[in-house]
Amino acid sequence: MERPLTQHITFPPLGLRQYEAVGGYQAARKAIRHMQPQEVTALVKDSNMKGRGGAGFSTGMKWSFVPMNVQGPKYLICNADEMEPGTFKDRWLLEGNPHQLIEGMIVAAYAIQATESFVFMRWAYKVAAEEIRKAIQEAYDAGYLGKNILGTGYSLEMHLHTGVGRYMCGEETALLNSLEGKRATPRSKPPFPQVSGLFGKPTIVNNVETLCYIPHIVNKGADWFQKLSLTADGGTKIYGVSGHVKNPGAWELPMGITLRELIEEHAGGMQDGYRFRGVLPGGASTDFLVEEHMDIQLDFAGVAAAGSRLGTGTMIVLDDQTCPVGFVHNLEHFFAQESCGFCTPCREGLPWTEKLLWAIEQGRGRMEDLELLESQTRLLGPGNTFCALAPGAMEPLQSALKYFREDFERHIKEEGCPYNHHHHHLHSTGHEHLHR
Amino acid sequence: MLSTVEKEQIEHEIRQVPVKKAACIEALKIVQEHRRWVSDEGIQDVADILEMSPAEVDSVATFYNLIFRQPVGRHIILLCDSISCYVMGLNALHEELVSILGIKYGQTTEDGRFTLLPNPCLGTCDHAPALMVDHDLYRDLRPESIANILEKYT
């Protein structure tokens, strides 16, 4: 089985010459020397590559919205913020093969005729930042970045920006505000960043995994990409599993493997003494899947048909020893803390939701609270908030209320948590103190 | 007042961006790197060099989790409090840290050695639970490993 994204991952990663020796930078040479920018975009569109950051939008389509006949700067940005709880796939690619990402960025930048590019990386990824910094310098020294790349007249600058921590930075318009030195609040769309993005110039923001795939599509073509997959959504995908499984980790597998195969074969099944109850298939902001969904295919359409989202493809398993109410409270605490406070339903609604869940978890809940929580999932749902943060926060909650309702009811009836574990007092967070 | 080094570093960042304001986060990072935290004076210094109002700089500073507006210890402990770590034993780690250090989230030990903070997802969920001390990541943790880790930081 082919694993294009991860086959050359090593620790420490390949340097530029070693990367070239395994075929690296051939796609950059091919694209910049022998293809028109529009041809590159058309190829990526033909491949039906869907963005790996979580939304699953067609990458080639996104690029095609960039106006090609305008003067002045354009930007290509790699979103390496990876702050979705439970997600650890991009770290692997960044630390393990930085040149693959840089080559993908060069090709993507060429396709939209970008003049400048940024890697926007989260604070915590210290090793990744060091590897990317080194690799960018090597690419400059070898003439793949800078002025007049490979003597073709095409020029591209690349910078690494490391963040200072805020989940909102993963939302692409909030990321742009952060790169402009501002608070990371989302922007209204339209205009879309493809037309008016960083500093008001045409901008593309793509995820790490998406960009890492671009060199392979240029080298091997759209058909090859499509055939890697078991379904209509092409390619391989990096899937990950965390929680009480025997072998937590991440694997590059054909798009569309089943949930059962992922959990039972690759993650080795549940640890002894733990039973599977459910899984968030694509990070904290996706709906639970449960036992009945074990045989669905894990692609964008398959997971959507089961009522959830593939998201980042990194799964968090809920076991029978972990309280589902506590689990969901942890998620809502995160979302309430990370809400940017810009729009009212999210700023006010998420802390309220968190407090309701905490009351239930501590045995102070009432049956009416469940209806209140259900109404929150609608009031904070799609269409009522400025961006996708609050609707994302409601996904695990609404599905928990559906699949684990008896657990919520037991907490209320028994006036306490029936699970034998300590409660983590999350209410006072240090950041609030440090910000006075 | 900005030191010569701080000033040089911030001016270097200003040259990378089309408008001065866009260097705001980088400038705050630079001030914090030299002074460990960003005081009101630090806010004023950044405002002066970037030609912004102090309130505008503060609005940026207080938005980001890892810009500190209060004094912090010599070492920052960031305990991952997100979902995979929660499932894999965050609570026991937290209790151990609190019992060794005698402080809660957001506090600094009396000797100024450690500040304890929760941090959303460190992105190492297959090796949960995890924490960082300064730039060092520790994974697959058990409460009994905490004391040894902390000993390395003086």
Keywords:
heterodimer, A: 436 residues, alpha/beta, Rossmann fold, Ubiquitin-like (UB roll), de novo design (two linked rop proteins), 3 domains, 4-stranded parallel β-sheet, 4-stranded mixed β-sheet, 18 helices, 8 strands, globular, B: 154 residues, alpha+beta, Arc Repressor Mutant, subunit A, Glutaredoxin, 2 domains, 7 helices, 4 strands, elongated
| Strand element count of chain B | 4
Strand order in the sheet with the most strands of chain B: 2-1-3-4
Tell me the span between the first and last alpha carbons of chain B: 29 Å
CATH structural fold name of the largest domain in chain A: Rossmann fold
Order of helices and strands of chain A: HHHHEHHEHEHEHHEEHEHEHHHHHH
Q: Biggest sheet of chain B, in brief?
A: 4 strands, mixed
Instruction: Count every beta strand of chain A, where a strand is a DSSP E run of 2 or more residues.
Output: 8
CATH superfamily of the largest domain in chain A: NADH-ubiquinone oxidoreductase 51kDa subunit
Q: How many domains make up the coordinates of chain A?
A: 3
CATH superfamily grouping of the largest domain in chain B: Glutaredoxin
What gross morphology of chain A would you assign?
Answer: globular
What does this structure look like?
Chain B: This is NADH-quinone oxidoreductase subunit NuoE. Chain B: Keywords: 2Fe-2S, Iron, Iron-sulfur, Metal-binding, Oxidoreductase. Chain B: It holds the Pfam family 2Fe-2S_thioredx. The complex is a heterodimer of chains A (436) and B (154). The relative contact order of chain A is 0.11. In chain A, the strands form 2 sheets. A 4-stranded parallel beta sheet of chain A has the order 3-2-1-4, sandwiched between helices. Chain A has a 4-stranded mixed beta sheet with strand order 6-5-8-7, with helices on one face. Chain A is globular, with a radius of gyration of 22 Å. Chain A is of the alpha/beta class and 436 residues long. Helices cover 43% and strands 11% of the residues of chain A. Chain A has 3 domains: 16-227, Rossmann fold (3-Layer(aba) Sandwich); 236-319, Ubiquitin-like (UB roll), CATH 3.10.20.600; 324-435, NADH-ubiquinone oxidoreductase 51kDa subunit, iron-sulphur binding domain (de novo design (two linked rop proteins), Up-down Bundle). In chain A, helix 2 packs across helix 9 (208-220), helix 13 packs antiparallel against helix 14 (344-361) and helix 13 packs antiparallel against helix 16 (389-403). The longest helix of chain A has 18 residues, at 344-361. Chain B is α+β, with helices and mostly antiparallel strands and 154 residues long. Chain B has 2 domains: 4-63, Arc Repressor Mutant, subunit A (Orthogonal Bundle); 75-151, 3-Layer(aba) Sandwich (Glutaredoxin). Chain B contains 7 helices and 4 strands; from the N terminus they run H-H-H-H-E-H-H-E-E-E-H. Chain B has helices at residues 4-15, 24-35, 40-50, 54-61, 83-87, 90-101, 146-151, and strands at 75-80, 114-119, 131-133, 136-138. Chain B has a 4-stranded mixed beta sheet, with helices on one face. The interface between A and B is large, with 68 and 58 residues.
